[in-house]
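Intended use. Records such as the Secernin-2 entry shown here are meant for training and evaluating sequence-to-structure methods. They are not intended to support clinical decisions.
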Amino acid sequence: MRGSESVSMADGDLAAPCSCDCFVAFPPASASQAVIFGKNSDRPRNEVQEVVYFPAAVHLPGSKVKCTYLELNQAEVTHAVILSRPAWLWGAEMGANEHGVCIGNEAVWTKEPITEGEALLGMDLVRLGLERGLSARDALYTITQLLEQYGQGGSCMEDPASFTYHNTFLLTDRKEAWVLETAGCYWAAQRIQGGSRNISNQLSITIDISAEHPELRKHAQCQGWWSGEGDFNFSAAFSLIKQPVRMEAAKARYRAGRELLKKNEGLITIETMMDILRNKESGICMDSEGFCTTASMVSLLPQDPTLPCVHFFTATPDPSMSVYKPFIFVPHITPIPMAMSPCFGDQDPVKKIPRFQTKVERRHQLYKTHQTAIQNKKFSQEETEKLQQMMQNVERQSLLAMKDLLDRRITIHPEELSDLFFDCVEAEMKLYK
Protein backbone atom coordinates (compact mmCIF):
# COMPACT_ATOMS: atom_id res chain seq x y z
CA MET A 1 0.00 0.00 0.00
CA ARG A 2 1.48 3.34 -1.02
CA GLY A 3 1.58 6.27 1.38
CA SER A 4 -1.02 8.19 -0.62
CA GLU A 5 -3.45 5.27 -0.30
CA SER A 6 -3.04 5.18 3.45
CA VAL A 7 -3.90 8.86 3.54
CA SER A 8 -7.25 8.30 1.85
CA MET A 9 -8.03 5.77 4.58
CA ALA A 10 -7.12 8.34 7.20
CA ASP A 11 -9.48 10.86 5.63
CA GLY A 12 -12.34 8.46 5.22
CA ASP A 13 -12.46 6.70 8.58
CA LEU A 14 -13.85 8.92 11.32
CA ALA A 15 -13.09 6.31 13.96
CA ALA A 16 -9.42 6.07 13.02
CA PRO A 17 -6.96 6.26 15.92
CA CYS A 18 -4.91 9.09 14.50
CA SER A 19 -4.62 11.76 17.16
CA CYS A 20 -2.64 11.99 20.38
CA ASP A 21 -0.48 14.53 22.17
CA CYS A 22 2.69 14.04 24.20
CA PHE A 23 4.58 16.55 26.38
CA VAL A 24 7.76 16.86 28.40
CA ALA A 25 9.14 19.70 30.53
CA PHE A 26 12.65 19.95 31.99
CA PRO A 27 14.08 22.61 34.29
CA PRO A 28 13.97 25.56 33.87
CA ALA A 29 10.54 25.10 32.23
CA SER A 30 9.37 22.90 35.11
CA ALA A 31 8.76 24.50 38.50
CA SER A 32 11.17 22.21 40.37
CA GLN A 33 14.22 20.05 39.73
CA ALA A 34 12.09 17.41 38.08
CA VAL A 35 11.05 16.27 34.63
CA ILE A 36 7.30 16.28 33.89
CA PHE A 37 5.96 13.91 31.21
CA GLY A 38 2.38 13.74 29.97
CA LYS A 39 0.37 12.01 27.25
CA ASN A 40 -3.22 11.69 26.10
CA SER A 41 -4.09 8.54 24.22
CA ASP A 42 -6.80 9.31 21.66
CA ARG A 43 -8.35 6.13 20.31
CA PRO A 44 -11.70 4.78 19.00
CA ARG A 45 -14.42 5.87 21.40
CA ASN A 46 -15.47 2.39 22.52
CA GLU A 47 -11.96 0.94 22.86
CA VAL A 48 -11.05 -0.04 26.43
CA GLN A 49 -7.65 0.92 27.82
CA GLU A 50 -6.29 -0.93 30.85
CA VAL A 51 -3.42 -0.23 33.25
CA VAL A 52 -1.24 -3.29 33.81
CA TYR A 53 1.97 -4.01 35.71
CA PHE A 54 4.59 -6.56 34.67
CA PRO A 55 7.46 -7.37 37.05
CA ALA A 56 11.10 -7.58 36.06
CA ALA A 57 12.10 -11.00 34.77
CA VAL A 58 15.09 -13.11 33.72
CA HIS A 59 14.52 -15.25 30.63
CA LEU A 60 16.17 -18.47 29.53
CA PRO A 61 18.44 -18.36 26.47
CA GLY A 62 16.43 -18.92 23.31
CA SER A 63 13.19 -17.62 24.84
CA LYS A 64 10.66 -15.92 22.57
CA VAL A 65 8.18 -13.12 23.18
CA LYS A 66 4.90 -12.90 21.23
CA CYS A 67 4.06 -9.28 20.46
CA THR A 68 0.71 -8.32 18.93
CA TYR A 69 1.52 -9.97 15.58
CA LEU A 70 5.20 -11.01 15.56
CA GLU A 71 7.25 -13.38 17.71
CA LEU A 72 10.73 -12.06 18.60
CA ASN A 73 13.77 -13.28 20.46
CA GLN A 74 13.31 -12.34 24.11
CA ALA A 75 15.88 -10.23 25.95
CA GLU A 76 17.81 -11.96 28.72
CA VAL A 77 16.41 -9.48 31.25
CA THR A 78 13.23 -7.37 31.08
CA HIS A 79 12.58 -4.46 33.42
CA ALA A 80 9.44 -3.97 35.51
CA VAL A 81 6.90 -1.81 33.63
CA ILE A 82 3.55 -0.12 34.22
CA LEU A 83 1.57 0.24 30.98
CA SER A 84 -1.57 1.97 29.76
CA ARG A 85 -2.66 0.00 26.72
CA PRO A 86 -5.63 -0.84 24.49
CA ALA A 87 -6.76 -4.09 26.08
CA TRP A 88 -6.69 -6.13 22.85
CA LEU A 89 -2.97 -5.81 22.08
CA TRP A 90 0.43 -6.71 23.55
CA GLY A 91 2.12 -3.32 23.47
CA ALA A 92 1.14 0.00 25.03
CA GLU A 93 0.19 3.55 24.14
CA MET A 94 2.28 4.87 27.03
CA GLY A 95 4.02 3.70 30.15
CA ALA A 96 7.07 3.74 32.40
CA ASN A 97 9.67 1.36 33.73
CA GLU A 98 11.34 0.90 37.10
CA HIS A 99 14.35 2.98 36.00
CA GLY A 100 12.35 6.16 35.40
CA VAL A 101 11.99 5.82 31.63
CA CYS A 102 8.68 7.01 30.11
CA ILE A 103 7.57 6.55 26.50
CA GLY A 104 4.51 7.58 24.48
CA ASN A 105 3.80 7.27 20.75
CA GLU A 106 1.77 9.07 18.07
CA ALA A 107 0.38 8.06 14.68
CA VAL A 108 1.88 9.68 11.60
CA TRP A 109 1.72 9.33 7.80
CA THR A 110 4.68 10.16 5.58
CA LYS A 111 5.83 9.83 1.97
CA GLU A 112 7.24 6.43 2.87
CA PRO A 113 4.80 3.61 1.90
CA ILE A 114 2.79 1.81 4.55
CA THR A 115 4.07 -1.78 4.68
CA GLU A 116 1.76 -4.57 3.57
CA GLY A 117 1.23 -7.34 6.10
CA GLU A 118 1.89 -7.58 9.82
CA ALA A 119 4.99 -6.33 11.61
CA LEU A 120 5.61 -4.50 14.89
CA LEU A 121 3.05 -1.94 15.98
CA GLY A 122 4.34 1.36 17.31
CA MET A 123 2.66 0.34 20.56
CA ASP A 124 4.70 -2.88 20.62
CA LEU A 125 7.84 -0.76 20.25
CA VAL A 126 6.78 1.36 23.24
CA ARG A 127 6.60 -1.72 25.48
CA LEU A 128 9.79 -3.26 24.07
CA GLY A 129 11.65 0.01 24.68
CA LEU A 130 10.44 0.14 28.28
CA GLU A 131 11.15 -3.51 29.01
CA ARG A 132 14.66 -3.34 27.58
CA GLY A 133 15.82 0.24 28.17
CA LEU A 134 17.78 1.35 31.25
CA SER A 135 17.55 4.95 30.03
CA ALA A 136 15.74 6.98 27.38
CA ARG A 137 18.81 6.71 25.14
CA ASP A 138 18.95 2.95 25.70
CA ALA A 139 15.24 2.62 24.85
CA LEU A 140 15.81 4.73 21.71
CA TYR A 141 18.52 2.31 20.58
CA THR A 142 16.26 -0.69 21.30
CA ILE A 143 13.35 0.75 19.31
CA THR A 144 15.42 1.83 16.30
CA GLN A 145 17.25 -1.50 16.11
CA LEU A 146 13.97 -3.44 16.21
CA LEU A 147 12.39 -1.05 13.73
CA GLU A 148 15.22 -1.58 11.25
CA GLN A 149 15.14 -5.35 11.76
CA TYR A 150 11.40 -6.06 11.75
CA GLY A 151 9.70 -2.95 10.37
CA GLN A 152 6.39 -1.51 11.54
CA GLY A 153 2.93 -2.44 10.33
CA GLY A 154 -0.29 -4.31 10.99
CA SER A 155 -3.75 -3.14 11.91
CA CYS A 156 -3.81 -0.63 14.76
CA MET A 157 -7.51 -1.11 15.45
CA GLU A 158 -9.51 -4.05 16.75
CA ASP A 159 -11.51 -4.28 13.56
CA PRO A 160 -11.61 -6.50 10.43
CA ALA A 161 -10.93 -3.35 8.35
CA SER A 162 -7.17 -2.86 8.50
CA PHE A 163 -5.86 0.53 9.57
CA THR A 164 -2.12 1.16 9.72
CA TYR A 165 0.25 4.06 10.32
CA HIS A 166 3.83 4.92 11.14
CA ASN A 167 4.85 6.35 14.50
CA THR A 168 6.61 9.10 16.36
CA PHE A 169 7.75 8.70 19.98
CA LEU A 170 8.66 10.81 22.97
CA LEU A 171 11.10 9.04 25.32
CA THR A 172 12.33 10.58 28.56
CA ASP A 173 14.14 9.82 31.80
CA ARG A 174 15.42 11.98 34.66
CA LYS A 175 18.27 13.47 32.58
CA GLU A 176 17.19 13.80 28.96
CA ALA A 177 14.42 13.20 26.44
CA TRP A 178 14.43 12.09 22.83
CA VAL A 179 11.90 12.79 20.10
CA LEU A 180 12.00 9.85 17.66
CA GLU A 181 10.19 10.20 14.34
CA THR A 182 9.88 7.40 11.82
CA ALA A 183 8.97 6.80 8.20
CA GLY A 184 8.86 3.07 7.55
CA CYS A 185 12.20 1.70 8.78
CA TYR A 186 13.85 5.13 8.49
CA TRP A 187 14.11 7.46 11.46
CA ALA A 188 15.52 10.66 12.92
CA ALA A 189 15.89 11.60 16.58
CA GLN A 190 16.33 14.86 18.46
CA ARG A 191 17.83 15.10 21.95
CA ILE A 192 16.15 17.36 24.54
CA GLN A 193 17.94 18.37 27.76
CA GLY A 194 16.12 21.50 28.88
CA GLY A 195 12.95 23.51 28.41
CA SER A 196 9.80 21.88 27.05
CA ARG A 197 8.75 19.94 23.96
CA ASN A 198 5.54 18.46 22.60
CA ILE A 199 4.66 16.18 19.70
CA SER A 200 1.43 15.48 17.87
CA ASN A 201 0.50 13.61 14.69
CA GLN A 202 3.10 15.14 12.39
CA LEU A 203 6.83 15.19 11.76
CA SER A 204 8.41 17.99 13.78
CA ILE A 205 12.17 17.36 13.54
CA THR A 206 13.71 19.70 10.98
CA ILE A 207 17.51 20.21 10.80
CA ASP A 208 18.23 19.68 14.51
CA ILE A 209 18.96 15.94 14.22
CA SER A 210 20.96 14.26 16.99
CA ALA A 211 20.88 10.70 15.58
CA GLU A 212 19.48 9.08 12.45
CA HIS A 213 19.15 5.95 10.34
CA PRO A 214 22.49 5.40 8.54
CA GLU A 215 20.81 5.43 5.12
CA LEU A 216 18.30 8.20 5.86
CA ARG A 217 19.77 10.97 3.71
CA LYS A 218 20.79 8.65 0.89
CA HIS A 219 17.25 7.26 0.75
CA ALA A 220 15.68 10.74 0.74
CA GLN A 221 18.02 11.79 -2.08
CA CYS A 222 17.33 8.65 -4.15
CA GLN A 223 13.57 9.29 -3.82
CA GLY A 224 14.00 12.88 -4.99
CA TRP A 225 12.84 14.27 -1.64
CA TRP A 226 16.15 16.06 -0.96
CA SER A 227 18.62 17.56 -3.40
CA GLY A 228 21.64 16.54 -1.35
CA GLU A 229 22.67 20.16 -0.99
CA GLY A 230 22.35 22.41 2.05
CA ASP A 231 20.88 21.45 5.41
CA PHE A 232 18.92 18.21 5.55
CA ASN A 233 15.41 18.90 6.88
CA PHE A 234 13.79 15.60 7.93
CA SER A 235 10.25 16.96 8.21
CA ALA A 236 10.44 18.75 4.85
CA ALA A 237 11.86 15.68 3.12
CA PHE A 238 9.48 13.04 4.49
CA SER A 239 6.20 14.88 5.22
CA LEU A 240 3.34 14.40 2.80
CA ILE A 241 2.77 17.38 0.53
CA LYS A 242 -0.99 16.92 0.87
CA GLN A 243 -1.73 16.18 4.51
CA PRO A 244 -4.72 14.07 5.64
CA VAL A 245 -7.48 16.07 7.30
CA ARG A 246 -6.61 14.64 10.72
CA MET A 247 -2.95 15.60 10.35
CA GLU A 248 -3.96 19.15 9.44
CA ALA A 249 -6.05 19.23 12.64
CA ALA A 250 -3.02 17.94 14.55
CA LYS A 251 -1.08 21.04 13.51
CA ALA A 252 -3.54 23.18 15.49
CA ARG A 253 -3.25 20.88 18.52
CA TYR A 254 0.54 20.95 18.27
CA ARG A 255 0.57 24.76 18.20
CA ALA A 256 -1.90 24.95 21.08
CA GLY A 257 0.16 22.51 23.14
CA ARG A 258 3.32 24.47 22.47
CA GLU A 259 1.59 27.70 23.53
CA LEU A 260 0.29 26.13 26.75
CA LEU A 261 3.81 24.98 27.61
CA LYS A 262 5.19 28.43 26.81
CA LYS A 263 2.49 30.16 28.84
CA ASN A 264 3.43 28.11 31.91
CA GLU A 265 7.18 28.17 31.35
CA GLY A 266 9.04 28.00 34.65
CA LEU A 267 5.84 27.05 36.46
CA ILE A 268 5.06 23.59 35.05
CA THR A 269 4.07 21.09 37.74
CA ILE A 270 2.22 17.79 37.78
CA GLU A 271 -1.02 19.75 38.15
CA THR A 272 -0.11 21.99 35.19
CA MET A 273 0.45 18.98 32.97
CA MET A 274 -2.87 17.47 34.08
CA ASP A 275 -4.61 20.75 33.23
CA ILE A 276 -3.02 20.76 29.76
CA LEU A 277 -4.19 17.20 29.11
CA ARG A 278 -7.69 18.16 30.26
CA ASN A 279 -7.85 21.16 27.90
CA LYS A 280 -10.82 20.66 25.59
CA GLU A 281 -10.74 24.03 23.85
CA SER A 282 -7.46 23.13 22.13
CA GLY A 283 -8.63 19.63 21.20
CA ILE A 284 -5.85 18.11 23.32
CA CYS A 285 -8.57 16.49 25.42
CA MET A 286 -10.27 14.84 22.46
CA ASP A 287 -14.03 14.34 22.27
CA SER A 288 -15.39 13.91 18.75
CA GLU A 289 -17.82 11.66 16.94
CA GLY A 290 -15.61 8.63 16.37
CA PHE A 291 -12.89 8.84 18.96
CA CYS A 292 -11.88 10.46 22.22
CA THR A 293 -9.14 10.59 24.82
CA THR A 294 -9.50 7.03 26.10
CA ALA A 295 -6.75 7.28 28.74
CA SER A 296 -4.18 9.72 30.08
CA MET A 297 -0.81 9.58 31.85
CA VAL A 298 1.38 12.07 33.73
CA SER A 299 4.76 11.31 35.33
CA LEU A 300 7.02 13.19 37.72
CA LEU A 301 10.70 12.25 37.42
CA PRO A 302 12.81 13.97 40.11
CA GLN A 303 16.35 14.68 38.95
CA ASP A 304 17.53 13.65 42.42
CA PRO A 305 18.08 9.88 41.92
CA THR A 306 17.36 9.18 45.61
CA LEU A 307 13.73 10.24 45.13
CA PRO A 308 11.14 7.93 43.52
CA CYS A 309 9.44 8.65 40.21
CA VAL A 310 5.65 8.95 40.43
CA HIS A 311 3.38 7.96 37.54
CA PHE A 312 -0.32 8.89 37.32
CA PHE A 313 -2.86 7.07 35.12
CA THR A 314 -6.60 7.51 34.53
CA ALA A 315 -7.43 4.06 32.97
CA THR A 316 -10.72 5.69 31.90
CA PRO A 317 -11.82 8.02 29.09
CA ASP A 318 -11.83 11.82 29.29
CA PRO A 319 -9.27 13.06 31.84
CA SER A 320 -11.55 16.01 32.62
CA MET A 321 -13.98 13.45 34.09
CA SER A 322 -11.42 11.03 35.54
CA VAL A 323 -9.06 10.81 38.49
CA TYR A 324 -5.30 10.58 37.96
CA LYS A 325 -4.18 7.73 40.22
CA PRO A 326 -0.54 7.45 41.45
CA PHE A 327 1.82 4.53 40.95
CA ILE A 328 5.35 4.08 42.35
CA PHE A 329 7.65 1.13 41.66
CA VAL A 330 8.33 -0.74 44.90
CA PRO A 331 9.50 -4.33 45.59
CA HIS A 332 6.01 -5.79 46.05
CA ILE A 333 3.31 -4.31 43.85
CA THR A 334 -0.37 -4.80 44.70
CA PRO A 335 -2.26 -6.08 41.62
CA ILE A 336 -4.83 -3.68 40.19
CA PRO A 337 -7.62 -6.03 39.01
CA MET A 338 -10.24 -3.24 38.82
CA ALA A 339 -8.20 -1.57 36.04
CA MET A 340 -7.30 -4.80 34.22
CA SER A 341 -9.38 -6.24 31.39
CA PRO A 342 -10.38 -9.91 31.10
CA CYS A 343 -7.84 -12.24 29.44
CA PHE A 344 -9.07 -14.61 26.71
CA GLY A 345 -5.83 -16.47 25.97
CA ASP A 346 -5.67 -18.32 22.67
CA GLN A 347 -9.42 -17.76 22.18
CA ASP A 348 -8.93 -14.01 21.84
CA PRO A 349 -10.20 -12.82 18.40
CA VAL A 350 -6.92 -10.94 17.86
CA LYS A 351 -5.00 -14.24 17.97
CA LYS A 352 -7.24 -16.23 15.64
CA ILE A 353 -6.69 -16.14 11.87
CA PRO A 354 -8.46 -14.34 10.24
CA ARG A 355 -8.29 -11.82 13.07
CA PHE A 356 -11.02 -9.63 14.57
CA GLN A 357 -13.97 -11.74 13.38
CA THR A 358 -15.81 -11.44 16.69
CA LYS A 359 -15.98 -9.03 19.62
CA VAL A 360 -15.39 -9.85 23.28
CA GLU A 361 -16.15 -7.95 26.48
CA ARG A 362 -12.93 -6.10 27.37
CA ARG A 363 -14.30 -3.60 29.88
CA HIS A 364 -12.63 -3.75 33.29
CA GLN A 365 -14.45 -2.99 36.52
CA LEU A 366 -13.31 0.64 36.76
CA TYR A 367 -14.22 1.28 33.12
CA LYS A 368 -17.71 -0.21 33.58
CA THR A 369 -18.38 1.88 36.68
CA HIS A 370 -17.06 5.03 35.01
CA GLN A 371 -19.09 4.34 31.86
CA THR A 372 -22.30 3.76 33.80
CA ALA A 373 -21.86 6.92 35.84
CA ILE A 374 -20.57 9.28 33.15
CA GLN A 375 -20.81 8.01 29.57
CA ASN A 376 -24.31 6.57 29.85
CA LYS A 377 -25.83 9.36 31.92
CA LYS A 378 -26.59 12.92 30.96
CA PHE A 379 -25.44 15.25 33.72
CA SER A 380 -26.64 18.78 34.25
CA GLN A 381 -23.94 21.43 34.44
CA GLU A 382 -24.38 21.57 38.21
CA GLU A 383 -24.09 17.77 38.58
CA THR A 384 -21.02 17.69 36.35
CA GLU A 385 -19.26 20.38 38.37
CA LYS A 386 -20.14 18.63 41.63
CA LEU A 387 -18.72 15.30 40.42
CA GLN A 388 -15.60 16.99 39.07
CA GLN A 389 -15.07 18.67 42.45
CA MET A 390 -15.34 15.33 44.26
CA MET A 391 -12.89 13.74 41.81
CA GLN A 392 -10.47 16.62 42.27
CA ASN A 393 -10.65 16.12 46.05
CA VAL A 394 -9.66 12.45 45.68
CA GLU A 395 -6.87 13.43 43.30
CA ARG A 396 -5.69 16.28 45.52
CA GLN A 397 -5.24 13.96 48.50
CA SER A 398 -2.88 11.69 46.57
CA LEU A 399 -1.03 14.68 45.08
CA LEU A 400 -0.46 16.15 48.54
CA ALA A 401 0.80 12.81 49.83
CA MET A 402 3.22 12.55 46.90
CA LYS A 403 4.50 16.09 47.51
CA ASP A 404 5.09 15.34 51.17
CA LEU A 405 6.93 12.15 50.21
CA LEU A 406 9.16 13.89 47.65
CA ASP A 407 9.84 16.80 50.00
CA ARG A 408 10.86 14.21 52.62
CA ARG A 409 8.26 15.52 55.07
CA ILE A 410 6.81 12.05 55.51
CA THR A 411 8.00 8.48 55.19
CA ILE A 412 5.64 5.98 53.61
CA HIS A 413 6.22 2.26 54.04
CA PRO A 414 6.76 0.42 50.71
CA GLU A 415 3.65 -1.69 51.33
CA GLU A 416 1.58 1.49 51.55
CA LEU A 417 3.16 2.80 48.35
CA SER A 418 2.20 -0.39 46.53
CA ASP A 419 -1.44 0.20 47.53
CA LEU A 420 -1.63 3.82 46.30
CA PHE A 421 -3.17 3.11 42.89
CA PHE A 422 -5.47 0.44 44.32
CA ASP A 423 -6.73 2.74 47.10
CA CYS A 424 -7.30 5.63 44.70
CA VAL A 425 -9.29 3.40 42.33
CA GLU A 426 -11.51 2.29 45.21
CA ALA A 427 -12.08 5.92 46.28
CA GLU A 428 -12.89 6.92 42.70
CA MET A 429 -15.35 4.07 42.20
CA LYS A 430 -17.24 5.09 45.35
CA LEU A 431 -17.86 8.50 43.74
CA TYR A 432 -19.54 6.90 40.73
CA LYS A 433 -22.00 4.81 42.73
